[in-house]
Amino acid sequence: MAFALLLGGAGFAAWKLEWLSGNGGSVSFGKAPASDASASAAPDAGKPSPGAPSPSATPGGDPDVLLPTGPRSDFKQTAKLDDGTVIAKARLAGAKSGFEGDVWVWTPKEYNEAKYEKSAFPVLIALPGGNGFPSNYWSDRSLGLQKAISEGVQAGTSLPFVVIMPVLNPDSKYYYDGADIPGQPKMGTWIAEDVPAFTKANFRTYKSRDGWAFMGSSSGAFVGMKTVLQYPDRFKAVIASGGEIVPDSPLWKGHQAEMDANNPEKLAKKLIDGNGPEVYINFQIGTKESGRERMTKFQQSFGKGPVKTTIRDIQNGEHNGWHYVRGMKEGSLEWISKVLKAPQPSTG
């Protein structure tokens, strides 16, 4: 379900001017390593450039740290937060999927601090519900996702995540379950391979899955959960808010085997039977919306062994992003922060 974003009030005009200040301008994140300073933006970000730092570089002595592989993407500001951080957008031509779409990004202020310049940061890939095209509603500052993370960092309840917000679907006609449905755009490859490659091209990330997670709402919750279960060697955790449990795109008709390969129930059973690796699923559900029973059923049937599940009830919560962010502030951000790797400040 797409969430309407309604803003108003007497002070909105002045606030909006500040919010829009600098929009459309070029944005750079962090300091470019010397060997990457001349790397130019390219639509197929994610492919290493000849002048980019080696993926094996280990600044600060942590072998898990991956410097930006380059080439750097061309980011344009789309919103500015009260703490001075910005949300920016780039165009990504997926080298693996062949799909081209927009990706929004946000980094916490800690990302630019000198004491963290040799550290990697955990990545949270935020997926929207509804059409998820041509925009990603988590990039709208009014939902408060980025602010919730910043406040959580200050309170010691959240890691300073780099937030990556790609489009979820290739059009507004259908939903694609974040999967490679035969004969359709390869949205599973887009989410699981091209978007992470784009992130590694532009940001200091961790090589291991300990620095990679999803959050999503509605259909985005399904895709995030499915992808973690499908690729537990790449992603470790997900906050899944108000989502479905099984694939239900109308485009699966005639492709039962492929649909089964994207079914979280079957994927969870495979993990259980194979004894891992461990994945962490935190369901969120508002008490004023339906769907808790399917989460409870999944937890009872598959929340065992390496599949670690929790369910967070959001009191008086409805099926919308504001209430899901509230649930994250009330505990889900702290939950996911405990299972992922934190950035390490330099000691010198």
The gist of it:
The chain is α/β, with parallel strands linked by helices and 348 residues long. The chain is 27% helix and 18% strand.
Could you characterize the architecture of this molecule?
With 348 residues, the chain is of the alpha/beta class. 27% of the residues lie in helices and 18% in strands. The protein has eight helices and twelve strands. The protein has helices spanning 12-20, 145-155, 187-202, 219-230, 256-260, 264-274, 292-302, 321-339, and strands spanning 26-27, 65-66, 75-80, 86-93, 100-106, 123-127, 162-166, 205-206, 212-217, 237-241, 279-286, 307-314. The protein has a ten-stranded mixed sheet with strand order 1-3-4-5-7-6-9-10-11-12, with helices on both faces. Helix 2 packs across helix 8. The longest helix is centred in the last third of the chain and has 19 residues, at 321-339. The protein is globular and about 50 Å long. The model is unreliable at 1-17 and 32-57 (pLDDT under 50).
The helix/strand series, from N terminus to C terminus, equals HEEEEEEHEHEEHEHHEHEH
Q: Tell me the major beta sheet.
A: 10 strands, mixed
Amino- and carboxy-terminal Cα gap: 48 Å
β-strand percent reads 15-25%
SS element count, helices: 8
- Which of globular, elongated, flat, extended, rod-shaped describes the shape? globular
Mean pLDDT: 89
Structural class: alpha/beta
State Rg: 19 Å
